[in-house]
Amino acid sequence: MKQMSPVQTYIERRRRRFFAVTFLFASLLIVASMLHLAVGSAVMNPLRVLSEGLNQILSSSISIEGYRIERMFSALIAGVALAISGYLIQSVSKNPLGDPYLLGISSGALLGVVITFLIPVSFLLVYVVRPLAAFLGGLLAYLLTLLIASKAGITPTTLVLSGVAVGTALYSASLLPQYLALQNISKVFLWSQGSFVDPSPYGSLILVSALLASSLLLINRLDSINALNISDDVVRELGRSPQLERRILTFISSLLASLTVAWYGIIGFVGLASPHIARRLLKTGDAKLVLPSTILVGPLLTILSDAIAKSILYPVEIPVNIIVSIFGGPALALILVGMRRNV
């Protein structure tokens, strides 16, 4: 048998690690999904929930089983969207702390959505104006974060601090319209802190459509993402404009994060932690390997967090963002320590 060269050996090991990690995350995601379907007001057989729930959805006669499937699916697609958004922000900004929550995008989107609460409800408002307002709010917040950071000299630290400043200001600005527009204060708080209590089939359809369109754009840009992580000159060697690539990737990231906020409120740290978990286990930064794994980690985090949120203090519903932040805080600390060691 012909002996493999060191390069071939490295490639083969990396390929095996990728398949092993993908299998691990996919298995954990299936287990988490079954757990999510099982827990709630009563513990139920997840296979029965899946079978009866799908029949209810197809017959447009939703009961508890159908509701649990819709809620689990909402947590899944939100996790995928946030994971992709976080990964793209980290790649575009070359900032390991990049995250739609930390960089103000989520709060900007929240403010955009809250403003639409002041407009009389209609189908056009909910499914066209509200997502558009969320996207514009998120994008403008990110641009404002970049502007402030550029004035201070862009570094990973100044970018995050600028994002926190913008996010805090915009989140605070969103509180007053929420209290004025909605009478149910507990529902306002639950939604603004992230919740899948009220899954919307139309909202899910819009987010899935955005994910499919984004995937088509990203498939042909994995080499560009890898190049951006090295230098702009490498991007130019591919025959592409680094500025245009950044604009496209920023657009996708802002769109996915903002649409998630439009339907499910603010859910932090998923976009931050998912790419880091994938990179740590894969031991590579190759977008062709890290992005698929990141897409599995994101929904794993949101589904597990929502399973805990809806069952740990039942009948009280805990906002998902609280559960995610309990794990996200230590994750952020570990990332910061890792950055310090690499200096």
Reconstruct the topology from this structure.
Elements: H1 6-38, H2 46-58, H3 64-93, H4 105-116, H5 123-152, H6 156-181, H7 185-192, H8 201-219, H9 222-228, H10 232-237, H11 242-264, H12 270-282, H13 287-311, H14 320-342
Helix pairs in contact: 1-2, 1-13, 2-3, 3-8, 3-11, 3-12, 3-13, 4-5, 4-6, 4-11, 5-6, 5-11, 8-11, 12-13, 12-14, 13-14
User: Approximately how much helix is present in the residues?
Assistant: over 70%
> What name does CATH use for the topology?
ABC transporter involved in vitamin B12 uptake, BtuC
Structural class: mainly alpha
Query: What's the average pLDDT?
Result: 86
- Total discrete domains: 1
Order of helices and strands: HHHHHHHHHHHHHH
**How many helix segments?**
14
Total number of beta strands: 0
> What is the CA-based Rg, rounded?
20 Å
Shape descriptor reads globular
Main beta-sheet strand count, sense and barrel state: none
Instruction: Name the CATH superfamily classification.
Output: ABC transporter involved in vitamin B12 uptake, BtuC
- Percentage of residues in DSSP E strands: under 5%
Q: Cα distance, first to last residue?
A: 44 Å
Uncertain spans, ≥5 residues at pLDDT below 50? Answer: none
Return the CATH class.
Mainly Alpha
Task: Explain this structure.
By secondary structure, this protein is an all-alpha fold. The protein has a single domain, classed as ABC transporter involved in vitamin B12 uptake, BtuC (Orthogonal Bundle). Helix content is 78%, strand content 0%. The radius of gyration is 20 Å and the shape is globular. The model has no long low-confidence stretch (mean pLDDT 86).
